[in-house]
Amino acid sequence: MINNTIYTPKQQRILLITSLIIIAGFMIVGLRNYISAFLGAGILYVVLRPWFAALALKRGWKRPLVAALLILFSFVVIVMPFLTLSLLLADRIQQYSQNPQQILDLIHKGEDLTGFKITSPQNIRQIVQQGASYASRLLPSVAGGLLDFIIIIGLMFFTMYFMFVQNEAFHNGLQKYLPFKRDTQRELGESLKNNVNANVLGQGLVSLVQGILTGLTLWIFGVPDPAFWGVVAFFLAFIPVLGTPLVWGPAALIQLSQGNTGQGVGILLVGAIVITNIDNLLRIMLARRMGDIHPLVTLAGIVLGVPIFGILGLVIGPLLVSYFIVLMGVFERENRQQRDEVARDEAKVEEVASSEK
């Protein structure tokens, strides 16, 4: 059969790859507002896969039934509580942004206590409004986009369903199309597992405990609205080092500025001794069981991921940093192996040449 194409095989290959990249680019642009759905499906898949393996693979339950049960469980136990906390925080942030006088009063009390003037009221008001606007963009808002929210949740569970039901095809597809060797894929999979375990399960548990302890501490020592500040502490606890001190520290200063010395000192003692040490103890215990991620990787990942992916950036950001480190290690190892192979080949050539002489 005569080939009438004007392209050489090499040109056809280049054009094929270019066409794939262009089409993939259009798909990414079209789905850019819903990328979080696919990322969320991947995270939930890693979290729930041990349960799927235990029920569907070991006990022989029907895969569609197991997938449906896991979706129902994740919606009731994971998505709804997290969404409720996010909406509560977003609503209160909007209130503070529209009426920053409460925050201004607290700052003035802190200035009176320390004798240090921070800045002008106009600048503080602007900072509060900008911060509230930024924080609101990071949190899901049903009122602001009900249709988008429904689509994201639907896509996430739809994707997760087929990831479970067609488990083998999903894994084979990854192994087939990822441009990495089998050892590299294994390292990336282990890094994903460690990050999800550390930053979703482990860090989520640590943050929940710290948020509850912070809210109880503020309630015991008479700080107004302790439930709200406990929710704030829950989200801030995902940030290493800083975390909950950003809540109980200012609360203690406010109590001291109001002349409540006992309450202020009590909050400082409980925060520094109990809440902080509970954080360190839980992190050490969970790091051995759920994956040990360096705090610097987590912090850098959060700074990178949250502005791009919103709340999911708490997991996606550290994962990107971990993947970068893994791929750099793979690049270094393969380069070293290639240099060793070249050195061995050169040594063989020199040996053959010397023997011929």
TrEMBL record:
Keywords noted in UniProt: Membrane, Transmembrane, Transmembrane helix
Regions that span the bilayer: 12-31, 69-90, 142-164, 200-221, 227-253, 265-286, 298-331
Gene Ontology CC: membrane
Compartments (UniProt record): Membrane
Superkingdom field: Bacteria
UniProt membrane topology term: Multi-pass membrane protein
InterPro entries membership: AI-2E-like
Signal sequence interval, chain numbering: none
Classification via Pfam families: AI-2E_transport
Primary site of residence: membrane
Family, per entry: Belongs to the autoinducer-2 exporter (AI-2E) (TC 2.A.86) family.
Protein name according to UniProt: Permease
Species of provenance: Spirosoma montaniterrae
